[in-house]
Every structure is written in structure tokens, then in C-alpha cells.
């Protein structure tokens, strides 16, 4: 997101002059080319990282974790479904050997409404200084503002929220049995998806309306779960379960965490899913939790988030009632999950 020729000829000065002319013409063409989504120069595609002894990612298990979240109903902060799902998440993470810290409080939505907050942070090997931060939001949108029907009703959020959590839960299932060389923190952020409508995540300027999103991570940046928390890097998963999902290099991630993006893309090639991770860099995210953490803590965080060629942005189910369990693709979950297994267990 060059060519060259070799030829023997006695008239070397003429050829030298011709080559100079060709190079100048190529330079002028490149300078006049329109600004397109960035693509890496051929020959710089991610190479496979060394294979690591990572656990096997089970897409059926990850799908089951997504389905369980959806079964509670829309996970709108303050609802009974949200409370029940949160209890299940905490119990499940503890069962997988984590030390769990819950952050509770109240934040203010874009319409002035007070909203209860419940961030969930699960830690493995909390004594280790070297850590990686794995993020996804677990709440779901309280309105289907991108739908043509029932716009004021909450959505299931199977992909938008549920898919990222499902991948992390499957990864978490292995953390106690086969500990990686670094400490791991899974941060499930709350009140991410209660932002102001009207294309608030359409990729425009960082206006005040953009800051009405990601309220859980904004709270955490000001109130970290442990004093002076830091990590080597972080990875955010968002909408990773749609059918035949493809993941460009997201623009904000390339600005804040290009080395992390490179590490993930190499791991994807190693895991056999390099075709899902595109070399294009695309600017289709206006704000997400990774930006909040990058700006607030300095931890470089990359966002793995699906891009849809048909919409030119997010998957077509985004903020509609079609974001149901029927939209979740096990193969997409596996592509992301197997990649992240390589990343986490590949740390030294």
C-alpha cells in the first residue's frame, strides 16, 4: 500500500543519456500521480516471522464465546444484559487463571446522560514488568442508526464488540496452561459504542463529536488499573468476525504504531493468513480505543479492524440489526486469532 534493464551496447554514452531521460520521466509521473491509498513497493511485502510454539487457535471455541455474549442480549451499559454478560466475562477470565480488576464509575454520554461504566482488565503473570496489552470493547450500540428500520432499538453487536472479545477469550483460554514469555493484560473496554451519531467515525477531523466515543478507554487513561501502567505495545481488535474479512493497515495505527503493525503482518504471514492482511494503508477510522491509549499513555497500539470494499469503510452490518451471530465467520476469527497467537507467544 522499479523496473530495470541490462543491455550490452558499444554506444554507452547514448544509453547513459537515455537512462537518465527515463528516470526523469518516471520521477515526473510519480510526482503528478493522484493521492491513492498507500501500497508498499513490490519486494517489501511482509516476510514470515520465525515460527513460534504457539497454542492452536480454535475458531469453534472463539465462535462459541461470541455466541454466548450475543445470547445475553444487547450489551448496552446499564441494562440487565450488560450486567449479566459482565459477570460472565469476569468469571470466565478468572477461570482461565487471570487476576481481574474491574473499574466502575459513571461517564457522561454525548446527550448529557450519565452512563454506568464497567471496564474489565484481566492480567496473567502480573509480576512481570514486560507486558503486552490486548484490547476490545465489550459493550454494544444502543441504537441502529445505520439501519433503515428500528433505528432506536439496540443492536446485538456480534461483530462490533463481540468478535474481538471472542478472539481474546480463546487466546486467554491458553494463557495459564502455556504461559508466554511476557505478562499479558486483556482490557475489555466499556462504553465505547455510545458515541454521537452522524458519521462520527467516518474518518473526518478529530472534532468534539469524536470524543463522545471510547469513554471507557478515556476513563482508563486518566485512571489506570495499576499506577504507572505501561506495556511494550498493544493490539486492539474491532469488527474482526465478518465474512471474508480483510484488514488493511489502518491509518491511525500507521501513525502511532507502525512497528506493531509490521509485527502483526509478519505474524499473519507465518500463520498462513497473509492474504487477509492487506498491504494498503487506509484512513477509514476517525477514532477508536487505540488512539485514546496511544495519545494518553504513549503505548503504541495497533488496530486490527475490517475494511469492506463494498462500503469503502466498515462492514455493511455496522450499526445495523444485521450485526447478529449469523454475520460471524469462523474463518475470519481464526485468521485474526492464529495471527495473534504468533504475536503474543513470539515475544521474547
Describe the protein's architecture and organization.
- The chain is of the alpha/beta class and 348 residues long.
- The protein has nine helices and eight strands.
- A six-stranded mixed β-sheet has the order 1-2-4-3-5-8, sandwiched between helices. Strands 6-7 form a two-stranded parallel sheet.
- Strand 3, helix 4 and strand 4 (183-189) form a beta-alpha-beta unit.
- Helix 2 (59-71) packs across helix 4, helix 4 (158-172) packs across helix 9 (330-345) and helix 7 packs across helix 9.
- The longest helix has 21 residues, at 12-32.
- It is globular.
- The two termini are 29 Å apart.
- Mean pLDDT is 87; it is low at 1-45 and 200-205.
Terminus-to-terminus distance? 29 Å
Shape: globular
Number of strands: 8
Walk across the major sheet and give the strand order: 1-2-4-3-5-8
| Strand content range | 15-25%
Question: Taking all residues together, what is the mean pLDDT?
Answer: 87
Report Rg.
22 Å
Q: Uncertain regions: pLDDT < 50 for 5+ in a row?
A: 1-45, 200-205
Order of helices and strands: HHHEEEHEHEEHHEHEH
Amino acid at each position: 500500500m522499479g523496473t530495470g534493464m541490462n543491455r550490452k551496447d558499444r554506444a554507452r554514452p547514448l544509453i547513459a543519456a537515455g537512462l537518465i531521460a527515463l528516470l526523469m520521466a518516471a520521477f515526473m509521473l510519480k510526482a503528478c500521480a493522484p493521492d491513492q491509498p498507500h501500497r508498499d513497493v513490490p519486494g517489501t511485502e511482509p516476510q514470515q516471522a520465525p515460527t513460534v510454539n504457539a497454542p492452536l487457535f480454535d475458531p469453534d471455541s472463539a465462535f462459541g464465546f461470541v455466541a454466548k455474549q450475543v445470547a445475553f442480549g444487547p450489551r448496552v451499559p446499564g441494562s440487565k444484559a450488560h450486567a449479566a454478560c459482565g459477570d460472565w466475562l469476569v468469571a470466565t477470565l478468572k477461570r482461565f487463571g487471570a487476576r481481574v480488576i474491574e473499574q466502575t464509575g459513571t461517564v457522561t454520554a454525548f446527550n448529557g446522560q450519565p452512563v454506568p461504566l464497567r471496564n474489565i482488565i484481566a492480567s496473567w503473570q502480573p509480576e512481570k514488568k514486560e507486558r503486552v496489552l490486548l484490547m476490545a470493547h465489550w459493550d454494544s450500540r444502543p441504537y441502529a442508526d445505520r439501519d433503515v428500520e428500528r433505528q432506536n432499538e439496540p443492536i446485538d453487536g456480534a461483530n462490533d464488540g463481540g468478535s474481538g472479545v471472542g478472539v481474546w477469550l480463546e487466546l486467554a483460554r491458553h494463557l495459564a496452561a502455556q504461559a508466554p514469555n511476557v505478562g499479558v493484560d486483556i482490557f475489555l473496554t466499556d462504553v465505547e459504542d455510545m458515541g454521537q451519531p452522524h458519521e462520527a467515525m467516518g474518518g473526518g477531523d478529530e472534532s468534539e463529536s469524536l470524543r463522545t466515543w471510547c469513554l471507557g478507554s478515556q476513563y482508563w487513561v486518566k485512571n489506570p488499573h495499576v499506577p504507572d501502567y505501561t506495556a511494550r505495545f498493544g493490539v486492539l481488535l474491532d469488527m474482526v468476525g465478518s465474512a471474508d474479512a480483510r484488514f488493511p493497515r489502518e491509518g491511525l495505527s500507521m501513525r502511532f504504531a507502525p512497528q506493531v503493525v509490521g509485527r502483526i503482518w509478519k505474524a499473519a504471514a507465518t500463520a498462513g493468513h497473509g492474504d487477509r492482511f492487506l498491504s494498503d494503508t487506509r484512513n477509514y477510522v476517525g477514532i477508536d480505543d487505540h488512539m485514546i491509549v496511544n495519545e494518553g499513555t504513549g503505548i503504541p497500539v495497533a488496530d486490527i479492524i475490517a475494511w469492506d470494499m463494498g462500503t469503502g469503510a466498515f462492514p455493511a452490518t455496522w450499526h445495523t440489526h444485521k450485526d447478529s451471530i449469523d454475520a460471524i465467520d469462523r474463518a475470519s476469527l481464526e485468521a485474526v486469532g492464529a495471527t495473534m497467537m504468533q504475536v503474543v507467544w513470539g515475544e521474547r
